[in-house]
Amino acid sequence: MAHSARLLLLRMQAIPSIFLLCAWNLVSGHIRYSIPEELEHGAFVGSIAKDLGLTLEELSSRKFRIVSDSPKHYLDVNIKNGILFVSERIDREQLCAQSVNCVLELEVVIENPVEQYSVDVDIRDINDNSPNFPHSETCLQIAESATPGTRFLLENAQDPDVGTNSIRDYQLSPNQKFSLDVQHRGEWQLVHLVLENYLDREEESTYKLLLRAIDGGTPQQSGSTQITIALLDSNDNVPVFQQSLYTVVLMEDAPPDTIVIKLNATDLDYGSNSDIFYSFSSYNKAWVRERFRINSKSGQIIVKGILDFEEVDVYEINVEAKDSGSPPLIAHCTVRVNITDVNDNAPAITFNSVSSKISEDAQIGALIALISVTDRDSHENEQTYCQIYPNLPFELKSSIRNSYRLVTKELLDRESTAEYDISVMCSDRGSPPLSSNKTIVVHLTDINDNAPMFLRSSYTVYAMENKPPGSSIGSVTALDTDLQQNSQLSYDILERQIAGLPVTSYVSMNSEDGIIFSQRSFDYEQLKCFTIQIQARDAGFPSLSSNVTVNVIILDQNDNAPVIISTGSANQGRITVPRSADPGYLVIKVTASDADSGQNARISYELLQATDRSLFTVSHSSGEVRTTRRLKYYHVSVQRLVIQVNDNGHPALSATATVTVTISEQSAEINHDSVETRSDLQYSSHLAFYIILALGVISFILLIVIIALIIAICPTDRRSTYDPTCFATSCCCKSSLDAAGRSHHSNVNLQIVPDSKLITNVLEVRGNGSLSDSYRYKVRSAPEPSEMDFMFLTSYNPATPGTIRKLTRISVSEQCAKPTNVWRGVSSEVSQNMHLHEAEHAKIGWQDG
Q: Has this prediction a pTM greater than 0.85?
């Protein structure tokens, strides 16, 4: 029932109030209607055709239309009956905010002849919004020592409606301690909670009250918030302002840091309870803190942001003064800042009914656009006048206030000028005057008399090699100064041969946007560049075209690893270096190449692996391998170097070369590229000489012992039968061995030990003194009694057998004929391996001898 009654009320209110001044208004062309907001679509506003004195036939024949500055079309006219009706729901609060007067301004334009009328539609407010508090609950802290009459400012409710539909009164739920005092300050209402009786926190510590805001509309609406009051103890004097309301006038162009007012509140307390700090209260609107700030100690309110009279012309600033007591007491005052307007807004120009295209044979006086000018400033600052720049075949003709018509004043010729940029300049009458410009572009129709033109005389595009087919490699762009269909272009690749293949097998292109795509994966090493011809053709009649050359450059990618050309010697990878070489001796130079180009072909060298990394170094750029220090007697005679060659691509590719360096005992001429020997190496060379001399003496003594053992062991009778328990056939003289099969010397012990795993006998050589390691020689049965296999093992330990170094097949008859040679070889081998073991404790792999 309530909803039906409201609809009936709206329909009754929809009957417009029309104010016409019969004779004078028809001359001035001004009509005014009044309707309520929230009307439904199609609601009647007025008989505008009748009020303008127009017949229904004239509405159509004279092109009757409504022009409005509003982005939405709230009203429209039925051409058939001449009724002005509501075409879109009108929300007065959204359209005019809380302005008392809300007028929707329209302009009516008719032609033959051209006439303009102003139509104002007054939008009346209805009570469609209820009061609303910013917070559903308000918390207050009140000292129990507060005296009756103490006032507390409460946050007021907001109602978008205006007039009688806005907030009329506030009501507080019944209680014995508090009452409500509402003060009206113009359109503002200050709501105070007033203490009526003394408080006793021990009796009741918390009060919960309900505050209701009631508007004056029909039907009446309301909103509420709960007030929670917590009682506190101590500080009993409230700061006091000299006034409850301060009024200040401020120009809107006041710069930041301008002092608005200096507030002064007093407190009768002493000590910290009388220290007052100023701040903005929480009841202020958001824009107050954006525009102003307050000095908490001095009470000065200072301009912080940019003031704008057109946005807000009055600021209500709620300030609170809080003392330092416990709990603190607060006093409130209001500072009203009235903003004075200055001429800081240039006129705003709006083009209506714009004809952006006009035939070049248009007659003089043809309508181009209707122009309306508005200025947000007030009074004389909003009065404007407009003009266009001279030497144009157009002119402005004034119609009604702040409204103009842009028409042609001369005949047009597109062949001389294809389009016009018409700049309209409007100025106000403020001091100083402000102006603004707005440009309308008028195009003239044309014929297809211009061929497409490329932006460049030739193009160069780049394609990365190895990219998959279908990748975009570039584009071409052509322009046509014609319009519409005459300027629509299509692109095509002209047929030709590249390396015996059609160009379409290399590239293709999008005929609409000119983007070129690859048809294959390019290889820079095979094809570095080629050219194509592209044609752009318009869609006019007859069609026109033009050609352009496109150079396609293939970019290199790091897809080729370095290739090692040589390692700098006749015997590739095997180098002999004298042990006497000085530091910096050039061992070898590794040379490599890369099929790529640029940074991808920039090669660097590094030593990846080495038997002893401390002996050699590789030049990063040249690939030269040099010694870093002198080669000692204990260094392994065969050094294996792995040199890595890297390019500078992303990701980098590499190759490796293995170089075997044999350290020779023979002297050789030192490479002239070697670095100079430092003076402090003289002492090291003497020390090395003494070590070599000592090792030579020990080897010589060991050799004497082995020869003596051979002479003592081998029998003189070559006809002795073969005994596999001896280390040599027909040369084993058991009489020279003890019962365990051993032969003793001052430095070396030889013992024949059977090996259960193989059909062999083992000759074990043990050193005495400093040469305390043991070595084994294995003697294996051969198919022929006249031959045997002879093997050498390094540094034998029963728990950790050594590694076989050399395997030699020896003829029995040959060795018996020359036993001294056999034992000389054995002695030399034993001596050398004992030295190597004592120097580096290296394991030596065996090789077939």
A: no
